[in-house]
Write a structure and sequence with these properties.
By secondary structure, this protein is mostly beta strands. 5% of the residues lie in helices and 41% in strands. The strands form five sheets. Strands 2, 3, 4, 5 and 6 form a five-stranded antiparallel beta sheet that branches. Strands 7, 8, 9, 10 and 11 form a five-stranded antiparallel beta sheet that branches. Strands 16, 17, 18, 19 and 20 form a five-stranded antiparallel beta sheet that branches. It is globular.
């Protein structure tokens, strides 16, 4: 997974690449037609950058989600359309492989062998079939029944990096399952890119996680401030940069991405020039990676 990720990052344009000249240097609305108050969550692009998959909450009072698809035309981004994946189930966290041939997601649909009375989210995938997707397949080796599986990212070799949260919600572990050409092998715990900052400034901040972007030399962190009672405020984006063999102290991201509300679910565009993210679970915004990382 790490090798595949680093190869993918190396192929992306650097933030100061001439191809990135048109990327916005301040937070800008992205696909305004998709705005939907308190219902929007993480997106992912097709390799050509012309299709956006994201998930939306249906019933605000329940764990009820739907994956939607928006396509870019000469007139801009179209409205999201429901992506039906083998039934009317709660599906979330879509991620498309770099070759566009596999879609991985988590779902509350019934999982083979799960006898728990309370449904939970597990990993599934579907392969490209014509202009759509084939039947979803359960990633059994990744599942720990009763636990919550979230945030999957599929790499070029089809390995899947994801997080597993314990039933009591006290423990979150970064995991990976690897594809051997026929099936997914046993799950492994891995060191996430944000782990070095997991205990950073205790009592002041909570670090949710992070991801490497650009050429692997920029780490974007999801960080919430803590109040006097230790309660977490809205997440904001912070930046740590590789400096030789070490990383710089995290600092708030630039480009006007942070405000008083939530800024999260950040995803790089396929060209590596920009990112999109969700503002207050209500709308997508975009900014150049150069402005975000302070270059």
């Amino acid at each position: 997974m790490m090798l595949s990720l680093l190869l993918l990052l190396a192929q992306a344009a650097g933030p100061n690449d001439p191809r990135c000249a048109g990327a916005p240097n301040r937070a800008t609305a992205f696909a305004p037609a998709l705005a939907d108050s308190a219902r929007l969550f993480r997106g992912t692009f097709s390799p050509d950058g012309l299709t956006l998959y994201y998930f939306r909450k249906g019933n605000l009072a329940e764990e009820d989600y739907r994956i939607l698809v928006s396509r870019r035309t000469t007139e801009g981004w179209g409205r999201g359309e429901r992506l039906v994946l083998g039934g009317d189930y709660s599906d979330l966290y879509p991620s498309v492989s770099p070759d566009g041939q596999r879609l991985v997601f988590t779902s509350y649909r019934p999982a083979p062998g799960d006898t728990a009375t309370k449904p939970n989210a597990y990993l599934w995938y579907a392969d490209r079939s014509g202009n759509g997707w084939g039947p979803p397949r359960f990633v059994a080796s990744a599942a720990l029944f009763g636990s919550y599986h979230s945030g999957p990212i599929i790499a070029a070799d089809y390995s899947i990096h994801f997080a597993r949260t314990s039933p009591d919600w006290r423990t979150k572990t970064e995991m990976i399952v690897r594809w051997d050409g026929k099936s997914y092998g046993p799950v492994e715990a891995v060191r996430g890119p944000a782990e070095r900052w997991s205990a950073w400034r205790p009592g002041e901040y909570h670090v949710w996680g992070g991801q490497l972007v650009g050429r692997g030399d920029v780490l974007l962190l999801d960080i919430s401030p803590l109040d006097g009672r230790g309660r977490r405020g809205p997440a904001q984006i912070w930046v740590s940069r590789r400096q030789g063999g070490d990383w710089s102290e995290p600092r708030p991201a630039g480009g006007g991405v942070n405000g008083t509300g939530w800024t999260n679910f950040l995803v790089p565009t396929p060209d590596g020039c920009s990112v999109i993210y969700v503002r207050d679970f209500s709308r997508f915004e975009t900014v150049s990676l150069a402005a975000l990382s302070g270059e």
